[in-house]
Q: What sequence folds into this?
């Protein structure tokens, strides 16, 4: 178990757990059940989220989707919250600052606030890094084969990352960046997230065109060959590849999985990413793939992480139907 993925108890076989996945623009809640080697999302709801809200409003927003899953939650239900960093995952306290989101949660007891709102004892709520949950979901359920050394990056409002050694999150050591985080890596004298993130790509495209577009709109224009849109995305993805390359080499990564909201535009992203990876010295033969599970990845990964507290991760790949019903 990684240092940035601490929890309280394990997830018993056959019992459902609750998952809240907090993103930069949404909060998604789900119930996930365990059946043998399989996990299944049996109910899910998403609500929009403004990361600049005051602390109390943010906590209300986090649980709004959870409340929509049912009028009441059994007090025995375990919940795991996939939160972006920087966050104190063991204590459940925000340490945000200078990351352009969730500033109001700095020093706030998020575990206590969520427990009060859900009507649960605080020890029923665990926390895991959101990118680690995404990575674990993809490693455990997103491919027909598992690899020993897998790295996952998530692209959206920021850049999330996780380094996995046979399904275990690695956050320390000379072969990974501090905490396993790539967003602060330097690129052109600034943190990488100042080059590849929603705000960075929108700003770069605006400088080139004088227009403010969403990343989805920029990707659509790039798919049609619009030069400025192509240039903005290529600049961001090349920067990601160059910055990741040395760490993928030192970690001896077998596979790089790219997820997050931006990966839906994979065809206009992958070329520049591969060029950047080659320039950055990534391992020859590295498997570079988009997320298979997309929105399901962090939900299944968070539940799998909770289950792993009670039993070791199997290295035999399951073949679940991850979605049972979706609301």
A:
């Amino acid at each position: 178990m990684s240092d940035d993925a601490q929890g309280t108890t394990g997830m018993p076989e056959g019992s459902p757990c609750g998952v809240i996945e907090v993103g930069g623009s949404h909060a998604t809640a789900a119930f996930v059940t365990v059946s043998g080697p399989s996990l299944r999302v049996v109910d899910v709801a998403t609500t929009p989220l403004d990361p600049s809200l005051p602390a109390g409003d943010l906590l209300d927003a986090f649980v709004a989707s959870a409340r929509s899953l049912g009028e009441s939650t059994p007090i025995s239900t375990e919940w795991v919250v996939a939160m972006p960093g920087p966050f104190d995952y063991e204590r459940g306290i925000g340490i945000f600052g200078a990351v352009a989101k969730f500033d109001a949660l700095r020093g706030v007891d998020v575990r206590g606030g969520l427990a009060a709102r859900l009507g649960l004892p605080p020890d029923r709520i665990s926390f895991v890094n959101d990118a680690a949950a995404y990575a674990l979901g993809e490693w455990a359920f997103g491919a027909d084969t598992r690899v020993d050394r897998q790295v996952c990056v998530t692209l959206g409002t920021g850049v999330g990352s996780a380094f996995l050694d046979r399904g275990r999150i690695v956050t320390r050591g000379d072969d990974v960046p501090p905490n396993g985080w790539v967003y602060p890596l330097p690129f052109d004298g600034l943190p990488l997230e100042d080059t590849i993130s929603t705000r960075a790509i929108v700003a770069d495209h605006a400088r080139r065109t004088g227009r403010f577009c969403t990343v989805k709109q920029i990707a659509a224009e790039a798919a049609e060959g619009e030069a400025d849109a192509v240039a903005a995305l290529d600049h961001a993805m090349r920067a990601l590849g160059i910055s990741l390359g040395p760490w993928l080499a030192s970690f001896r990564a077998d596979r790089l999985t790219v997820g997050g909201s931006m990966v839906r535009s994979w065809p206009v992203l992958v070329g520049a990413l591969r060029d950047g990876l080659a320039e950055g010295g990534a391992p020859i033969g590295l498997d570079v793939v988009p997320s298979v599970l997309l929105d399901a990845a962090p939900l299944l990964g968070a539940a799998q992480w909770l289950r792993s507290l009670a039993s070791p991760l199997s290295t035999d790949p399951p073949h679940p139907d991850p979605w049972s019903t979706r609301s």
